[in-house]
Design a protein that fits this description.
Blueprint lengths: L6 H4 L3 E3 L3 H24 L3 H23 L3 E4 L3 E5 L3 E6 L3 E8 L9 E7 L2 H7 E3 L5 H4 L1 H15 L3 E3 L8 H15 L1
Antiparallel strand pairs: 1-2, 2-3, 3-4, 4-7, 5-6, 6-8
Helix pairs in contact: 2-3
Length: 187
């Protein structure tokens, strides 16, 4: 079977882009709500909770806010998956992706947000496949710190790469289906 007639060649490349402004709006609303709770705590005399809340959500949210507005995308083609995030891009060939699945972030609750996880054959290969995006964070500059974060991710979730709600344009179940379709066609 030639590359042109393989099942993977019949799948057109696709770029998935999350709804940037909707996600940014949700981020801003949550940031404002938690900051307001901190201000109310300060106003009621609870200085410890107020300062902690305003410091963590207010200041931390202002620092993280630009990331919510930056473009993210997931690119799928016959060769692999490319995850483009503001601080880094990860390119993985399908031969490197061992499993795709759902991670239940809070299994003890009745409703729990889910994340899409990718388990790779060689976790160190993920570290080598990461290229810097705009404004690389300390973890991208420091490969040993990145490997430690990745080992922690695999230990907690069973996966090496996670795609949260901010990275997706569809439900986690539909994204797993789509990724699996491309991965199966490539094998």
């Amino acid at each position: 079977m030639t590359a042109a007639s393989s099942p993977a060649a019949s799948l057109q490349p696709v770029e998935l882009r999350p709804h940037r402004w909707r996600k940014a709006f949700a981020f801003v609303v949550l940031w404002a709500a938690f900051t307001a709770i901190g201000v109310l705590a300060l106003a009621s005399g609870d200085w410890f909770v107020g300062v902690l809340t305003v410091g963590f959500f207010g200041v931390g949210g202002l620092i993280a806010m630009p990331q919510a507005f930056r473009r993210r995308s997931i690119y799928l083609d016959a060769h692999g998956i490319e995850i483009r995030q503001p601080v880094a891009t990860i390119k993985l060939p399908w031969s490197e992706v061992e499993e795709v699945g759902l991670v239940d972030l809070q299994p003890w609750r009745l409703w729990s947000p889910k994340m899409v996880g990718l388990r790779v054959r060689d976790p160190d290969a993920v570290t080598q496949q990461i290229s810097r995006g705009r404004g690389p964070g300390p973890a991208v500059r420091n490969r040993s710190a990145l490997r430690a974060l990745q080992r922690g991710s695999r230990g907690l979730s069973g996966y090496d790469v996670g795609l949260s709600w901010i990275d997706r344009d569809r439900s986690p179940e539909k994204l797993v289906e789509l990724i699996e379709r491309y991965r199966a066609a490539a094998s």
